[in-house]
Design a protein that fits this description.
Order of helices and strands of chain B: HHHHEEEHHHHEHHH
Number of helices of chain B: 11
Number of strands of chain B: 4
Helix content of chain A: 55-70%
Structural class of chain B: mainly alpha
Oligomer: heterotetramer
CATH class of chain B: Mainly Alpha
Shape of chain B: globular
Largest interface: A-C, 52 and 62 residues
Radius of gyration of chain B: 20 Å
Largest sheet of chain B: 2 strands, antiparallel
Helix content of chain B: 55-70%
Number of strands of chain A: 4
Strand content of chain A: under 5%
Chains: A mainly alpha (608), B mainly alpha (317), C alpha/beta (280), D alpha/beta (237)
CATH architecture of chain B: Orthogonal Bundle
Shape of chain A: globular
Distance between the termini of chain B: 49 Å
Distance between the termini of chain A: 47 Å
Strand order of the largest sheet of chain B: 1-4
Chain lengths: 608, 317, 280, 237
């Protein structure tokens, strides 16, 4: 959480820095030859690279053991990787127009790419250098390698800022054969997997923070250089290949793991992300604010638990196969969604927010009360349904280790593969529905419901559809979650608690990630899960930081980390003041609104 | 079921409803002026309680005063803290988003609500060394309850009802009779034309936030006195209920908020009380009170979405 | 969609042809205020009717009643012999489409998407079909896209197809609204001040466009203040004043009508001076 | 005589759409100035900019020696510029008297008795129904209320935006008569009016707007005789 917030503030800080220094840069740029900048970058990055083979401190007290000479470890790996990247990124900047064959690296100009990468390296390396002094008590813990690492990373940044701006419109991509495109997509996705794997398996908070800083700034640099745009154009042109690549990468993650330690983290992220995606259909696509969404996850989990032969269940003798559990779980969730949605979706959106919030609370209370004391014994009350048996699907027992392709899959590994399948299904549904008659109807309702209805869109029906679909997908995730955690308790499904998923975290994953997009909630959910998981010192402050992050995000980047094109326009509408044009042109341009506004007022007056 | 029991339920419901009503006013006033569900209002209520407690616990001597003498000081403390928090939130969090799409301020409000809860839970310290992670004790009236023909009226109940009545009368006077009150109504009805009258809408919005916060602080005091404790997370359910009350009464309507509060309080007490009274349904009583309150909200939205004192439900897209 | 004669009918309701729209006694009250008071309106197939009257006469409110935005307090609206339910999406399905006085496009969607939304009620594909994407779905989607492109080029907007609606020039936004309205294959098009904010050249082009729309077999009802535009466009004019129908007839008849001059077109200079000196 | 209000090269835009494209005009103390033009010509935009509800993109507005381009709307009233908005915009859920008192908001807690009495004398119907909800008044009565409300702040310049809009001929005449009375009483008035002839008969000076620009200006009598005015207004030609 905090990293994401510090990330976003860091970003604006960086933007501020960029604009502030633009004038300075121009002045310097006239004096200093661009070659000076490039030399500094090369020198700095090379020295930083070299420093990773030196010791950075003489004590093993700093996590990751940075005392070894000749063999980079811990945070040094990040510095090593970023230094190499920076050196590579110099290639398109070396001669005007770029070294032949490297121009693709910076479609919009290489200066921004270099600045981003140099900054990423400096932030990540600088953070370690400072952390060494901070945690171990002073610069006495520095050795030569520390000084070299810190100074050279800074040198590279200095060099990057001496470079003149060379932003330009990206040249059109050269036509490449289909097979080459597919290869590129696969390679990039696999690289992405390695980066993600590194992040998920970071062993201590310093490494994770270094990773986040590096990845964040580097990502910004790549985006600014136009590489991301080019890659997303590539994926858009090769949807099936991208889908296969991502699926393959996701599956191979589990084969990179030697134990279940990080697979369980990945399982939790997947559950969280799946539900966040479901919520994104409701919030992002249909524009309905659901504050009790986690309850639908709970409905699915409880329903599945009740019919799977759970020991503590009233219906312990009912043991249905999983496909039946899933069907029932989804059906009950959809039903709950329709029951809540039907009366409220006719009203304006704010009511829905509160009613869903209330529903979340009611769900928790009801599950608590069906304990034999305050109501019939169904759910075992606050203690919850425990002893939910492991999943069994086509004779495959998810509780036992299986050897697949010579790799032993543990319990969490089994669930991981199933969850990848589920999230793939959710992504598939999300993408297809978004790009269809239904998706267009949702967008239209979000933009102007009255106009949408006048065009024949049955607003209520489509809102109800979104609400029911969202509830069903959450319910589906819930049916698996119950088996995975083997216990479901009412307190797992509250509005806010320190552990995701809960309604507030889900909403945050969507909002911070990017409403209406697929990758946004995935990124948001990963960050929101990993940050508290990796950074133990946040433990009791994460809800606070997370609340602050929501406020800051709405102020600075309301469209989220991965913005949807349309959303971005929506949120920055007023800045371009175009919407006012619509409104005001009525008030004035037409010098005679047929009095309809006045009539509305009158109508109100007459009723009062 | 005897009349006395029924009357006792009615008494409980009225008192509870008076408290809901006091909080609901804040929702209604803010909604009426800027169409924002101030999700953090429950936390403003909670902060009011802690403000009052701070005066009691930390200002030397206050704890030794007779409670009735200490109450005005505590009330002042609560009101100051709640109003400061609400006005600060308006200024720093909401105002910059005034032109943003509706979702932005609403999400901000959610963030604010979580952050405020956590600030209290993490950093509030009692003189004795306790913290506010769990409910903390609040002074309460000693002494026996008044017995009115079998109906027990606790001292705190009396205080609640009187406080609510005074506040509502003062509010009614403020809105209907004072220049600022009229200006606030004007801003709610037509902000642009209000500006043409020389009214600064920003000021009026601040007034709406402040008045709502002050009444929420009064409500928090009554809550503390009745239950003998307050907690950092009490704003969540109270806020939810109060919002329900505001919708019941017709959101945007100040008198409706009080009426809605009382209807909700009565419904909650009567439904759970009557259910608890009979053996067959006893188990669906107290533990389900929140559920019945919520069912009522759904019913009202279904049958009369504009609320009991129907202000218009603005559904223009 | 029924085929209508391509050549414009003579002014007035063509004898013998059953009107496609029949509004009878449409009344809309807001509390104590009667905004529309017992208005009758018949529109024949292929007819262009102008709806004029002073500001506040209830023209837009009448449109809103016709399109189900406001359920009328009294009166009935029959379209192609079928009584209309006062729900906007039902009205659109029945074949009445409209534009708005203040442009109400979906501002952040592309022009093409805007028009495709207009096609919404002529397609049926549901959730499962959208997920499964069978041949039926693909065909329907292709058809919708095709129709939308065709309409964009009909209104000379092809170059804007993938532009975000709100980035379009004002005049083109008005035209895009018409394209969107046409996408639902309506039999009757209601245009609410389509020429507002257009320059004289654009207004002239708009008139030609409306004639072309009539040639597609549609009837059109237009609210407009630009008298030159309306007199040269419409077969028949209906004048509303204070919620009531003041008069109706051919443009030249209406133009000569004393009452219309008095309430709308303005009193003749002589009487105005008289009036003003009275006022002193 | 120095102008009470002078506007130089005023531009106003909604986003990218420019609605007022360089208007210059003056209002002398005691004058009645009319602003005419077809729908969409930019009349209301001009008034809304003068009263601060909209911000000009360029140009200057000087009122009684003070520049107003950057002054917020609620301070402009204090300078003595009252705006009686288009479509009346009374506060429907307040009584007539409350509406009037709001008109005098800037005067603080002064005794409003004399002003209220004057308003009720001018419009007896308002006096008779002073404690009724304003939303229940008919259109013409609402217009009277709106004018009376604007006068409550004792403005130095009264801006009236289409006071006769949507009124019956009789009511329209009555409102115009009221405007004439105000003029005779020495009120400085900036009038936007649809009934061109009547407005010109009242006006000392008038400007005709077309798509955001002034195309004709002159004294009322001059414009009354001008064919172009009729053309700009009725689209006849």
């Amino acid at each position: 959480m905090t990293t994401s917030s510090s990330l976003s503030t860091g970003q604006t800080g960086a933007t501020g820095l960029t604009s502030l220094s633009r004038a300075t840069r121009r002045r310097l740029g006239q004096g200093a030859h661009p070659l000076v900048g490039k030399c500094l970058i090369a020198l700095g990055s090379a020295a930083a690279l070299g420093s990773t083979f030196l010791a950075w401190t003489w004590t093993t007290a700093f996590p990751g053991d940075l005392t070894v000479t000749g063999y980079p470890g811990g945070n040094q790996l990040i510095t090593l990787f970023l230094s190499i990247l920076t050196l590579l990124a110099l290639a398109p900047a070396l001669v005007p127009g770029g070294l032949p064959g490297t121009r693709w690296m910076a479609p919009r100009g290489s200066a921004r790419l270099l600045r981003g990468l140099a900054l990423a390296n400096a932030a990540s390396t600088g953070y370690v250098v400072i952390a060494i002094a901070w945690e171990l008590g002073g610069v006495a813990n520095y050795v030569a390698g520390t000084w070299i690492a810190g100074a050279s990373a800074l040198l590279a940044v200095l060099g990057a800022w001496l470079l003149p701006d060379d932003d330009h419109e990206p040249a059109p991509a050269r036509p490449t054969p289909r097979w080459a495109q597919v290869v590129v997509v696969f390679v990039v996705v696999m690289l992405g997997l390695l980066v993600a794997d590194f992040g998920v398996t970071t062993g201590f908070s310093e490494e994770f923070i270094g990773f986040c800083l590096g990845a964040g700034f580097a990502g910004r640099g790549l985006a600014a250089s136009g590489l991301f745009d080019r890659f997303s154009a590539l994926t858009a042109a090769n949807r099936t290949a991208t889908g296969c690549a991502v699926l393959a990468a996701a599956v191979s993650f589990v084969f990179l793991q030697s134990s279940d330690a990080y697979t369980s983290v990945a399982d939790n992220i997947l559950i969280f992300a799946t539900v966040a995606l479901g919520l994104n259909i409701v919030v992002g696509l249909a524009g309905l604010l659901d504050l009790g969404y986690v309850a639908f996850l709970g409905v699915g989990a409880y329903t599945a638990a009740l019919v799977s032969g759970t020991a503590a269940s009233r219906y312990a003798h009912v043991v249905l196969p999983f496909w039946a559990q899933a069907l029932i779980g989804v059906a009950v969730s959809v039903l709950a969604g329709l029951l809540i949605g039907a009366p409220t979706l006719r009203l304006r959106g704010d009511y829905l927010a509160i009613v869903t919030l209330g529903f979340g609370e009611i769900f928790r209370i009801t599950m608590n009360n069906l304990d034999g004391q305050s109501g019939p014994q169904v759910t075992n009350g606050a203690e919850g349904e425990y002893g939910i048996p492991d999943l069994r699907l086509f004779g495959y027992d998810f509780g036992r280790p299986h050897t697949v392709l010579g790799h032993t899959l543990g319990r969490f590994g089994n669930y991981y593969l199933l969850l990848v399948l589920v999230i793939a299904v959710v992504i598939f549904i999300f993408a297809r529905v978004d790009d269809s008659r239904i998706g267009r109807a949702w967008a239209a309702i979000r933009e102007d419901e009255t106009a949408a209805e006048a065009m024949g869109v049955h607003g209520y029906r489509f809102k109800l559809l979104a609400f029911g679909l969202g509830a069903g997908l959450a319910g589906l995730a819930g049916t698996i979650q119950g088996h995975l955690t083997s216990t479901v308790t009412p307190d797992q499904y509250t509005f806010s608690s320190s552990a995701p998923p809960n309604s507030a975290f889900l909403l945050a994953a969507v909002v911070l990630g990017g409403m209406g997009t697929i990758s946004g909630p995935l990124l948001g959910a990963s960050l929101l899960f990993l940050i508290p998981d990796k950074l133990q010192f946040f433990h009791n402050k994460q809800l606070l930081l997370f609340g602050i992050a929501l406020i800051v995000m709405m102020r600075l980047r309301p469209e989220g980390l991965v913005p949807d094109k349309r959303r971005r326009l929506e949120f920055h509408e007023r800045e371009t003041a175009a919407e006012e044009a619509y409104e005001e042109l009525v008030a004035d341009g037409l010098d005679g609104a047929d009095g309809s506004d006045g009539l509305d007022e009158l109508e109100a007056g007459a009723r009062a | 079921m005897s009349v006395t029991v029924l009357l006792q339920l009615v008494e409980n419901g009225l008192v509870l409803g008076a408290m809901y009503g006091l909080i609901a006013v804040g929702y209604t006033m803010v909604y009426g002026t800027i169409q924002l569900i101030n999700f953090a209002h429950g936390e403003i209520f909670m902060l009011g309680g802690f403000g009052a407690l701070t005066v009691y616990a930390w200002i030397p001597g206050v704890a030794h005063l007779p409670l009735l003498a200490a109450l005005p000081l505590m009330l002042l403390g609560g009101v100051v803290v709640a109003v400061a928090a609400a006005v600060g939130a308006e200024r720093l969090a909401y105002r910059p988003l005034r032109a943003a799409p509706r979702l932005a301020p609403l999400i901000t409000a959610i963030g604010l609500s979580l952050a405020l809860q956590q600030v209290v839970s993490l950093w509030y310290r009692l003189p004795g060394g306790g913290n506010a992670k769990a409910p903390v004790a609040f002074p309460s009236f000693g002494g026996k309850a008044f017995n009115l023909g079998g109906v027990l009226v606790q001292r705190a109940d009396l205080f609640t009802v009187i406080a609510a009545a005074v506040c509502m009368a003062a509010l009614a006077w403020f809105v209907a009779r004072t220049r600022s009150g009229r200006a606030m109504q004007a801003t709610a009805q037509d902000p642009d034309t209000a500006r043409l009258m020389g009214i600064d809408p920003d000021r009026m919005i601040v007034v709406a936030f402040a008045v709502g916060a002050a009444l929420a602080a009064v409500a928090a005091l009554t809550q503390g006195l009745r239950y003998g404790q307050i907690s950092f997370d009490m704003g969540f359910v109270a806020g939810l209920k109060a919002f329900t009350a505001a919708v019941l009464g017709g959101i945007g309507n100040v008198r409706g908020a009080m009426l809605g509060g009382i209807v909700l309080g009565l419904a909650e007490e009567l439904s759970s009380g009557i259910l608890a009274h009979f053996r067959d349904t006893a188990q669906y009583g107290q533990a389900w009170a929140d559920v019945w309150a919520f069912v009522l909200l759904i019913l009202v939205l279904l049958l009369r979405p504009q609320g009991l004192l129907g202000e218009r439900v603005a559904d223009r897209a | 969609m029924s085929i209508q004669p391509a050549n414009p009918p003579a002014s007035g309701t063509a004898p013998g042809s059953e009107p496609i729209l029949q509004a009878r006694g449409v009344t809309m009250r807001f509390g104590g205020l009667t905004a529309v008071d017992g208005v009758d309106l018949d529109v024949a197939g292929g007819e262009i009717v102008g709806l004029i009257g002073p500001n506040g006469a209830g023209k837009t409110t009448f449109f809103n009643c016709l399109t189900g935005l406001y359920p009328p307090t009294a009166g009935s609206i029959t379209f192609r012999g079928q009584r209309l339910a006062p729900k906007p999406y039902r009205v659109a399905e029945a074949g009445i489409s409209r534009t708005f006085q203040n442009i109400r496009l979906f501002p952040n969607m592309t022009a093409l998407e805007n028009v495709m939304v207009g096609r919404h009620c002529r397609t049926r594909e549901g959730l499962l079909s959208a997920i499964g994407r069978g041949p039926r779905y693909r065909a329907a989607e292709r058809e919708a896209r095709q129709t939308a492109r065709e309409l964009l080029s009909f209104l000379d907007l092809d170059r804007h197809a993938s532009a975000i609606a709100r980035s379009l020039p004002y005049g083109d936004q008005r035209k895009l609204e018409i394209a969107r309205a046409l996408a639902s294959d309506p039999g009757l098009l209601l245009l609410d001040e389509p020429a507002a904010g257009m320059n004289p050249r654009e207004t002239l082009a708009l008139r030609e466009t409306i004639f072309k729309i009539r040639q597609r077999g549609l009837s059109v009802v237009v609210i407009e203040h630009d008298m030159r535009f309306i007199f040269n466009l419409c077969d028949r004019l209906v004048v509303l004043a204070r919620g009531r129908k003041l008069t109706e007839g051919r443009p030249d008849e209406v133009r000569a009508d004393e009452r219309v001059i008095a309430t709308y077109l303005g009193t003749a200079p002589g009487t105005a001076e008289q009036e003003a000196s009275d006022a002193r | 005589m120095t102008a009470l209000l002078s506007v130089e090269a005023l531009h106003v835009a909604y986003g990218r759409v420019e609605a007022v494209k360089g208007i210059s005009m003056r209002v002398l103390p005691g004058q009645t100035v009319a602003l005419l033009g077809a729908n969409g010509a930019g009349k209301t935009t001009t008034l809304r900019t003068l009263s601060g509800l909209l911000r000009p993109t360029a140009g200057t507005i000087r009122f009684a020696g003070q520049s107003l381009e950057r002054v917020p709307a609620h301070h402009i009233v204090r300078a003595g510029l009252a705006h009686c908005p288009e479509a009346r915009r009374i506060f429907p859920r307040m009584t007539i008297e409350e509406n009037l008192r709001l008109g005098a908001f800037i005067r603080g807690n002064e005794d409003l008795g004399p002003d209220l009495r004057q308003a009720y004398e001018r419009f007896p119907i308002l006096g008779e129904r002073h404690d009724q909800m304003a939303g229940l008044l008919s259109g013409g009565e609402q217009q009277m209320l709106a004018i009376a409300r604007a006068l409550m702040c004792r403005p130095r310049l009264l801006m009236l935006d289409e006071p006769s809009m949507g009124l019956s001929p009789i009511m329209m005449q009555q409102i115009l008569r009221t405007v004439a009375e105000l003029k005779d009483a020495g009120t400085t008035i900036l009038l936007v009016e649809q009934n061109a002839q009547a407005a010109l008969a009242l006006a000392d000076y008038a400007y005709v707007l077309e798509t955001g620009r002034i195309v004709v200006e002159g004294t009322g009598a001059e414009l009354l005789a001008d064919e172009r005015v009729r053309e700009a207004y009725l689209g006849e030609g």
